[in-house]
Specification:
Blueprint: E1 2-9, E2 18-21, H1 22-26, H2 41-53, E3 76-83, E4 86-93, E5 97-99, E6 105-107, E7 111-118, E8 121-126, H3 129-140, H4 144-152, H5 158-162, H6 166-177, H7 180-226, H8 235-251
Antiparallel strand pairs: 1-2, 1-3, 3-4, 4-7, 5-6, 7-8
Helix pairs in contact: 2-4, 7-8
Length: 298
């Protein structure tokens, strides 16, 4: 945020319209606000803070912003400032003292208008005090107290910043440098790690339950196979035998794979020739007698 132009009227010691051109002062790179006590130096800081947040830069109450030299004029502040590539203008009216018919004094409520400069004019963004405060706080990234500590540092407050506790400085630096996004990422990663750890623990528990159930089932089957004579004293022996059996099964070599013999291609068959004549059948010889009780002699 860079202030460009400040205009006040009936504000503090300034009865008439007073304008501070920050663009002209900014060309020098550094400028000093100086003057005798009561000249209104701190009121300029109050005007900037009041324009942005509706609060003063120090402990001055809002009721004291209306100038004693212009009671008939509404105290007002107008601040033009640049924020990124946009130019904004905020106007506020401070509480104004007025005299009622019965002679008592009262103050009117504050008003605020926020505009954003566009080519050829401006767009009204908000016209309610609460909306203007919320939008400017979001845009600037600092609330009123942080703005006072970081940007303004009014008289007598610099020592408080130096003596702030570690927790207060940490909150202030987080707001200035926008480190909350890294905290959100770290928090998300921690949550994911905890969920993964719980999932792993649940999976390990499920595996242990399955192993326990499998051991119980194997012991039951071994007992059933061993017969009714096996008692509790033989449970250890059964476990040993089961372990040896599992080890033996695991150490069995795998049967070698028989290589496949390539198939020899069959030679092509030639044409079949004509069948010749069949010769005469010779006489049949006598049949040898068969001894059904003795050995057969071949």
């Amino acid at each position: 945020m860079r202030p460009r132009r400040l205009e006040v009227e009936a504000f503090g010691p300034f009865a008439g319209v007073q304008v501070v051109d920050f663009d002209a002062l900014g060309d020098a790179g550094l400028f000093l606000i100086w003057g005798p006590t009561g000249a209104g130096k701190s009121f300029l800081l109050d005007a900037i803070c009041f324009a942005l947040y509706g609060e003063t830069a120090g402990d001055r109450p809002l009721a004291r912003l209306h100038s004693d030299y212009a009671r008939s004029v509404t105290p007002r502040v107008e601040l033009r400032f640049g924020l990124g590539a946009d130019e904004w203008c905020v106007r506020r009216e401070a509480p104004r003292w007025r005299t009622k018919r019965d002679g008592t004094a009262t103050q009117a409520s504050t008003k605020a208008v926020l505009e954003r400069r566009v080519p050829g004019g401006s767009d009204v963004v908000a016209t309610k005090v609460a909306d203007v405060n919320r939008i400017l706080t979001d845009r600037l990234g600092l609330d009123a107290e942080e703005f006072r500590r970081v940007v303004l540092l009014p008289q007598g407050r610099f020592e408080q910043v130096l003596r702030a506790s570690s927790a207060e400085r940490e909150d202030l630096l987080k707001a200035i440098f926008g480190t909350t996004v890294f905290e959100d990422v770290a928090r998300t990663l921690d949550d994911e790690a905890r969920r993964e750890a719980r999932a792993i623990e649940h999976a390990e528990h499920e595996q242990e339950m399955r192993r326990t159930s499998a051991r119980a089932e194997m012991r039951r089957l071994a007992t059933a196979l061993a017969g009714p004579g096996v008692g509790d004293a033989d449970a250890g022996e059964l476990d040993r035998l089961l372990s040896e059996a599992r080890a033996a099964i695991g150490s069995l070599p795998t049967a070698p794979t028989v290589p496949t013999v390539p198939t020899v291609p069959t030679a092509p068959t030639g044409p079949t020739g004509p069948t010749g004549p069949t010769g005469p059948t010779g006489p049949t010889g006598p049949t040898s007698p068969t001894d059904t009780d003795g050995p057969v002699v071949l």
